[in-house]
Each structure stands twice: as C-alpha cells, then as structure tokens.
C-alpha cells in the first residue's frame, strides 16, 4: 500500500494589525507586565550599548525578534535557505547565548499574542531612549525580521519624530524610489538584502538604479588576529553588478542604512557562520559568504577585477 508522503507544513506567518490602536495608561502597563512574565523578556528594544553595530555612528535602538521561523512563527517571508541557515542574528555575537535567544523568541510570541500592546510598548521605549542621557538617533524595527511595519496605519507616526527609521529587507516590493518604504507615512529607508537567488541580483540592480541601496555579504573581509582582535580589510569605492558600476560603501562603519547615499552597493563583512577563512595576505576574499552563482553577478569569478580601489 502506497501512502502519500507528508510534506512539512510551513510555519504560520506572524501578521501585523492593519491599524495601530494602542491601549493606554494602566491597561497598557498591565498588559505589558503580563506579556513579560508569560514570555520571559524584560525590554522590547535593544539599546545601542547592547549591540556594537547599533552603537556606531548615529546610535540607534532596535526591535530584535527571533529570525526566520525559530519561534514557530515566520517573521522573514522573503528569506532564502542559505540566509536562514547562517543568520547572523542567531549565529554571531550575543545571538549564541541562550538567554538572548529566549528573549528574542519571547518578544516574537508576545507580538503575535498582543500586537497592540507590544507596538505601544515599542513607542514608549523609543520615547524613553530618545530622551535619555545618551539619546538614540535612529530606530530599526526589523533587526532580525522582515515585517511590513509601514502598513500598520498610525504606528510610524506614533514614534518620536526625530528618529531616523531604517531596515534591511529581502522583499523588493516593500522598496520604492530612493529606498523609501512603499506607503510609509514618514521617511523609512529600506536596504535590499541580496541573496543567492538569481532573481535577487536582477532586483538589486533595479533598486539601486532607482536610488535605493543593495546589501551584499562578502566572506574574508575581516580576520581574527593572534591577539584576538578583528582586522577589517578596506572596502572598494565602486562595485559592479552585471555590466553596471555603482558606488560602494562600507556597511560595517554603521548600521544606519538611512544615512547611506542614494544608489549604492553596501558591502558587509561575513560574520558568524559567514566569517570564512581566506588566504593570500591582505587580498580581498574570493567568494561571497552566501554563494551567488548567477552569471549576472560578476564578482564570483574575478572579485578583484570588479572592484575599484
């Protein structure tokens, strides 16, 4: 008797509400306290002093959920298999610590259980951090996720007006001209994250042509020295996708993608599982950390020839 093969069911997506309708006062405090106790997290936002990259130029805070579907809910609908397997938010830095992972899972489940209270909590924490002794100047809503916060009517407008908003995304449909989120009620810069999928390269070219930015992770751009310190290799000033050259910027100087020039390629050094070894002194790594086999991307076979110093 031939039985049908069961296919693993894709985890349910985490869906945001269409409209921001926050509770206020005592009700909000009570609901947030219940969520913290139930799901085991303390704060919703990661402050700059808890994330080295957020602390760099133009310090920002971030909402850090559990990436991919590691919470049981899918928060990255555009993810590829390779980026899921090597996610830097799970396999690098503090992401290896069980307490950090548990908190990220807890925030994700809390957002699903009571989105209005969590979003209101994000607004309250952002306001507090923006008024602090060392005030934040930016906010990243998707530090480990890819959720369309711009579609929650009223939410972006509730955040402190002086904060720059930015994110990375693998969903090209979220990105409009000059890298701005489609339908956002205020400036919200989105950088397209290039993956190993061939169509991702074509999308990246289109987005950069329209003034947006495309982020590429490259192996071998940083190495751990004998004393334990990290050495970063200088980045190119221009990069080529297909037959087109675009200006390139160093994505490791700051995480503030909203501060990038328009129409650029952002080069990031591979980290965690993507921090691969290289040979040959100070030569630039010969392959992407996330291998891209598309013939449209010419870095693959001759990376140095495609980069201008």
Number of strands: 12
**Helix fraction?**
10-25%
Topology as a string of helices (H) and strands (E): HEHEHHHHEHEEHEEEEEEE
Give the strand line-up of the largest sheet: 1-2-3-4-5-6-11-10-9-12
SS class: alpha/beta
Instruction: Report on the biggest sheet.
Output: 10 strands, mixed
Any low-confidence stretches, pLDDT <50, length ≥5?
1-8, 277-309
Our count of domains comes out at 1
What general form does the structure show? globular
Overall radius of gyration: 20 Å
Strand content: 15-25%
Amino-to-carboxy terminus distance: 65 Å
How many helix segments? 8
Arithmetic mean of pLDDT: 81
Keywords:
12 strands, disordered C terminus, alpha/beta, two-stranded antiparallel ribbon, 309 residues, 17% strand, globular
Tell me what you see in this structure.
- This protein is α/β, with parallel strands linked by helices and 309 residues long.
- It has one domain.
- The strands form 2 sheets. A 10-stranded mixed β-sheet has the order 1-2-3-4-5-6-11-10-9-12. A two-stranded antiparallel sheet has the order 7-8.
- Helix 5 packs across helix 6.
Secondary structure: elements and pairs:
Blueprint: H1 25-39, E1 45-46, H2 52-55, E2 60-63, H3 81-85, H4 88-91, H5 98-113, H6 115-130, E3 138-140, H7 155-158, E4 164-169, E5 189-193, H8 198-209, E6 213-218, E7 222-224, E8 230-232, E9 238-241, E10 244-250, E11 264-269, E12 307-308
Parallel strand pairs: 2-3, 3-4, 4-5, 5-6, 6-11, 10-11
Antiparallel strand pairs: 1-2, 7-8, 9-10, 9-12
Helix pairs in contact: 1-5, 5-6
